[in-house]
Design brief:
Distance between the termini: 82 Å
Helix content: 25-40%
Length: about 350
């Protein structure tokens, strides 16, 4: 005779519904900090609702999605969960910014094997801070607890941003011509790119988060959150209009692969190596890893997180306006004509 078995629950299978409910309760006040005009319904429903602000005459929706990459591995190893949420927001809102879009709302996806309410709350609090910095609302998301899919203590993140721009004011780089000036806005560190190589270099150097790095713990420098350029750049676009000809977010692919994305065929961005000083973190990474210059410029942002292409006669005024709004600005170089087989970005 078969013995009766103990009834199974979802918790027995590794999913704690109560923990998920507790997380939602913690998230709600975080999301409330980010509310803005246009939000009709946010956290808690099956779908979030957002009304495009009526000030747009011909609104074009601009969307972006991204993650944080292997920077998360350091977050797990070093127990630094407070700022990766800022990284998550930054990677998407900076992407849609380059087309002149104002970020409207953001959704996140947090997946783990076993949900820690405390860790997830720290991550989501960072997401809310990123939304505050970019002026967009955190109106929805998903927390997925999937036993067996992720090692204990690890999780993955994805983010989704939607913004709007006037159709007539979209920035697409098509007006860029030879003689235009290339400005660079300083990054806050490695942002969220190149961390597979960065982690390999840390391993080779035997370096840990508590190691002194010019008066700071190395962990603080390596995990510095991605800079969000939205508010200063949008204000400068509003002031100078079509003089902001092109914007490039320096993410995966570094300077060499991202600047060409806004250039028409036959144009080349010539960036001068002595136009900016590469921050100490990148110099140290290059030295410890024996990384070639060309590899550095293709993997890391090397201290430049956003590129702005402007007419030569407006470059000084636009740089001054960006500095007044808190950005560190470098005049990196200029746009030149080039042949079909020439690279569209060089660092000389």
């Amino acid at each position: 005779m078969t013995q009766p078995q103990t009834p199974l629950t979802y918790r027995d299978a590794g999913v704690d519904i109560d923990a998920g409910d507790a997380l939602v309760d913690r998230i709600k006040p975080m999301a409330a900090r980010t509310m803005r005009d246009g939000v009709l319904a946010g956290i808690g429903g099956f779908g979030a609702l957002f009304e495009v602000p009526k000030r747009y005459r011909e609104p074009v929706l601009v969307s972006g999605t991204d993650g944080v990459g292997t920077k998360l591995k350091l977050a797990f190893d070093w127990q630094r969960h407070d700022t990766v949420g800022i990284d998550l927001v930054a990677m998407s809102v900076n992407d849609i910014l380059v087309q002149g879009a104002e970020p409207l709302f953001f959704l996140d996806y947090f997946a783990c094997g076993r949900l820690s309410v405390d860790v997830a709350s720290r991550v989501v609090d960072g997401i809310a801070r990123g939304c505050e910095l970019s002026g967009c609302a955190l109106i929805g998301g998903e927390t997925a607890e999937m036993p067996g899919m992720y090692p204990d203590g690890e999780y993955d993140l994805a983010g989704f941003a939607v913004g709007a721009a006037e159709k007539s004011r979209l920035i697409d780089g098509k007006s860029i011509v030879p003689g235009d000036v290339v400005l660079g806005l300083a990054s806050s560190g490695a942002h969220s790119n190149g961390y597979s190589l960065l982690r390999k270099i840390l391993q080779r150097a035997g370096a840990g988060p508590d190691q002194d790095f010019h008066g700071q713990p190395l962990g603080d420098v390596v995990m510095a959150p991605t800079r969000i350029y939205v508010k200063p750049v949008l204000a400068t676009i509003a002031e100078f209009g079509p003089a902001i000809k092109g914007l490039a977010h320096i993410t995966g692919g570094g300077l060499l692969d991202n600047v060409p994305r806004i250039l028409q065929p036959g144009l080349q961005a010539c960036l001068h190596r002595d136009a900016w000083q590469m921050p100490r973190l990148f110099s140290w990474l290059q030295e410890q890893g024996g990384v070639a210059d060309s590899e550095m410029h293709r993997v890391f942002n090397c201290g430049i997180g956003m590129v702005v292409v402007v007419p030569a006669d407006k470059a000084g005024a636009i740089a001054a306006a960006l500095r007044a709004r808190g950005e560190s600005v470098h005049t990196l170089g200029e746009i030149r004509a080039c042949g079909e087989s020439d690279p569209q970005t060089i660092v000389d």
